[in-house]
Amino acid sequence: MKLDHHLGFGHRGAGHPGHGIAEAARAARELEALGFDGGFTAEANHEPFFPLLLAAEHTERIELFTNIAVAFARSPMDLAQIANDLQLASKGRFILGLGSQIRPHIEKRFSMTWERPVTRMREIVEAIKAIHRTWNEGVPLAFRGQLYRHTLMTPFFDPGPNPFGSPPVYVAALGPQMTAVAAEVADGLLVHPFHSGRFVLERVLPIVERGLASSGRTREQFAVSVTPIVCTGDTSEELDHARAEVKALLGFYGSTPAYRVTLDLHGWGELQDELNRLTKEGRWAELADAVPEEVFDELVVSGAPDEIGRLVSKRYAGAVDRVGLSMPYDASTETLGRVVAGFRSLTR
User: Fold this and answer.
1) Is 182 exposed, middle or buried (0-12, 13-18, 19+ CB in 10 A)?
2) Which of 153, 292, 297, 322 has the highest local Cβ count within 10 Å?
3) Nearest Cα residue to 303 out of 231, 229, 197, 226
4) Cβ atoms of residues 212 and 247 within 8 Å
5) 189 phi and psi, to 5 degrees?
6) Is residue 18 helix, strand or coil?
7) Per the structure, how many domains does the chain have?
8) pTM of the model
């Protein structure tokens, strides 16, 4: 099980600015020194690709990926080119992680088209892979989908074979249809942080198995990456602060209709209605207090830093391949070091 963390410790949840692109190189070096296996960015209040280029130049071992980049805001060709260049810059350590975002953001923030999202994500992944095959294997570019068409690649625009091969493509999902698409056409699945261990074991993994079977692949050929929300700290003051930030993040995620599937599994679907109502009324500051303790206990991995590894291992019962840490608050290098040590003690 690989352990990942956000570059710059900067994806700090709703309303937090994070540390920005200038910190990416320093953060990547720190994560590598601490023993993390991967570092990821998220497309929130910063663009997700530029920090990875800086991180690639200042690290040697850790894998680097987007968790996530918004697929529907870009064309497959654009994504294929960026992924190819980052694969070169990182010497084969890049993973392209894509997510759909939700309809209001695609239409109102990015001014792009929201149409048949499941089909769109499938075709984006298939098109990227077709473009990379053209560059790496010299086969004619002839992708013809329902929403995308890529049939032109002249020598001037062909970068040629990548010495490190094509980067893997992961798809982020929580609902059943997008999870199925990931298992059928992508190389890995990024499970959204708003989940419980039960949700992954009972809802996600069976869909993954069916999707892999339909594509003629085995579980060993596919990566399941989870990013649980983690609440930890070395002192009571740190724990109190972490808990407050985590509850705010839970309220933010829980207000989103697309993430209701997690709450429905546990019989808490009405909470989504309540949280969504608060956001519509502009009462964002009240989201945290509206999250019940039982929801916190079920959806969050909470404990001392050196206990997080054991709790995560118990939560997923050895059924996942990568674990990222969603920590919407600043954590010291010492705290993160203890978290890593706790994970590593499980493999010794």
Assistant:
1) buried
2) 322
3) 231
4) no
5) -120, 130
6) coil
7) 1
8) 0.94
Please provide the DSSP assignment of 210-267 as one string: HHHHHTT--GGGSEEEE--EEE--SSHHHHHHHHHHHHHHHHHHHT-GGGHHHHHHTT
Residue showing tokens 């998220």: 42
Q: How far apart are CA 322 and CA 319, in angstroms?
A: 10
Q: Is there a contact between 323 and 309 (Cβ–Cβ < 8 Å)?
A: no
Domain of residue 291, residue span = 2-345
Q: How many helices (H) and strands (E) does the chain have?
A: 14, 13
Buried-exposed string 189-202: b where 16+ CB fall within 10 A, e elsewhere: bbbbbbbbbebbee
Q: Report the sign of the C-alpha dihedral through residues 103, 108, 110, 114, in that order.
A: positive
CATH of the domain at 138: 3.20.20.30
Q: Tell me the two tokens of residue 233.
A: 């700290």
Place of tokens 């663009």: 47
Read off the tokens for 21: 């692109």
Strands 229-231 and 223-226, bridge-based pairing: unpaired
Average pLDDT, 10 consecutive residues per value, the chain (348 residues): 82 46 88 97 92 96 98 98 98 98 95 96 98 98 98 98 98 96 98 97 98 97 98 94 96 95 97 97 96 98 97 96 95 95 88
Q: Which amino acid would we find at residue 316?
A: Y
Write the single-letter amino acid at 342: G
| Closest-CA residue to 325 (of 208, 258, 242, 206) | 242
Q: The tokens of 139 are what? A: 């086969």
